[in-house]
């Protein structure tokens, strides 16, 4: 027997599971439109906060539409626009790395998404390949940023939040900034540094601090941070200087400083033009 929620949405099958909930394929039984259903049986506030943020960001291109938020029995749920595959899925499909053209095209879209969200006073705080998805059908070339479970306001009453120290790590250790490793609360700069690591990850296939063995989670985080701080990016022949400049720029921003998104976009766009890639949106998986 299938589960129907809110007398309108039928759950068909499980698509995936994350730290903060399970994702199911569903259908609006009135319109037959396929939708995504995110269910959370644990922290009741997490999904509610995410619903508020989706609603607040509803007019931004590349943020999935929120159709409904509610609760039924022991769980809360979000009804969201159905999207395609994650960038991690596509990376696996494409022999575990992307071409430079695809990385640059994705990077430009990532910057557009994060700039739009930052302009609304929100920081994402969990930039990773699984949180970027491609759209479906007519939106199949549009990159979406998802999962606002850890997202937070960095502006309150038009004032920037204050810098805090000795904080536990927020986000995914592989992609977080050095400042977050150092216990400093995240701000806009940290989302950008994480995007820089994503570009490197997609282009090279892995990151130098991947696959480390440690006795516990904290030790592993410390080992990752150590390699991030000491790694000599310029010695990596696979990595163009523009991506290194991107990472260094993000690392050198002050806590409250507004990033120059246009400068970062131009770094990627100029390299795209220099390589004489076609200006149409191009992705390896469309070959």
Percent helix, as a range, is: 25-40%
Q: Quick one: how many beta strands?
A: 12
Order of helices and strands: EEEEHEEHHEEEEEEHHHHH
What is the beta-strand fraction?
A: 15-25%
Q: Per the principal axes of the C-alpha atoms, what is the gross shape?
A: globular
Give the overall pLDDT as a whole number.
94
CATH top level of the largest domain is Mainly Alpha
Q: Low-confidence runs (pLDDT<50, min 5 residues)? A: none
Q: Termini, distance in Å?
A: 40 Å
**Rg, Cα atoms, Å:** 19 Å
The name of the CATH superfamily of the largest domain reads Transferase(Phosphotransferase) domain 1
Q: Give me the number of helical elements.
A: 8
Task: Assign the CATH architecture of the largest domain.
Answer: Orthogonal Bundle
Give, in spatial order, the strands making up the sheet with the most strands. 1-2-3-4-6-5
Please sum up the structure shown.
The chain has 8 helices and 12 strands.
Description:
It is a single chain. The model has no long low-confidence stretch (mean pLDDT 94). The relative contact order is 0.12. The protein has helices at 44-56, 87-93, 100-119, 178-181, 188-204, 217-230, 241-251, 261-274; strands at 3-5, 9-18, 21-28, 34-40, 66-72, 75-81, 122-123, 132-134, 143-145, 152-153, 155-156, 159-160. The chain folds into two domains: 9-81, 2-Layer Sandwich (Phosphorylase Kinase, domain 1), CATH 3.30.200; 87-286, Transferase(Phosphotransferase) domain 1 (Transferase(Phosphotransferase), domain 1), CATH 1.10.510.10. The N and C termini lie far apart (40 Å). The protein is α+β, with helices and mostly antiparallel strands. The strands form four sheets. A six-stranded antiparallel β-sheet has the order 1-2-3-4-6-5, with helices on one face. Strands 7-10 form a two-stranded antiparallel ribbon.
């Amino acid at each position: 027997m299938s589960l129907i929620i809110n007398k309108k949405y039928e759950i068909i099958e499980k698509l995936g599971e994350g730290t903060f909930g399970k994702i199911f394929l569903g259908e609006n039984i009135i319109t037959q439109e396929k939708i995504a259903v995110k269910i959370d049986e644990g922290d009741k506030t997490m999904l509610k906060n995410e619903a508020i943020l989706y609603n607040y960001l509803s007019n931004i291109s590349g943020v999935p539409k929120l159709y409904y938020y509610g609760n039924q029995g022991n769980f809360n749920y979000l009804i969201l626009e159905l999207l395609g595959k994650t960038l991690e899925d596509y990376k696996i499909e494409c022999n575990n790395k992307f071409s430079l053209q695809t990385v640059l095209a994705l990077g430009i879209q990532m910057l557009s998404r994060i700039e739009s969200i930052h302009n609304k006073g929100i920081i994402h705080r969990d930039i990773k390949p699984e949180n970027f998805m491609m759209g479906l059908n007519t939106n199949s070339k549009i990159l979406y940023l998802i999962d606002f479970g850890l997202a937070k306001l960095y502006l309150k009453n038009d004032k920037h939040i204050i810098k805090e120290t000795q904080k536990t790590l927020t986000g995914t250790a592989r992609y977080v900034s050095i400042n977050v490793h150092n216990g400093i609360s995240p701000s806009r700069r940290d989302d950008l540094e994480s995007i820089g690591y994503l570009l490197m990850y997609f282009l090279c296939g892995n990151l130098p601090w991947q696959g480390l063995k440690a006795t516990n989670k904290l030790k592993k985080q410390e080992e990752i941070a150590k390699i991030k701080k000491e790694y000599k990016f310029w010695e990596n022949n696979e990595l163009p200087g523009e991506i290194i400049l991107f990472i260094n720029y993000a690392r050198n921003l002050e806590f409250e400083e507004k990033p120059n998104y246009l400068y970062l976009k131009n770094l990627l766009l100029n390299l795209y033009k220099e390589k004489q890639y076609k200006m149409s949106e191009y992705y390896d998986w469309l070959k």
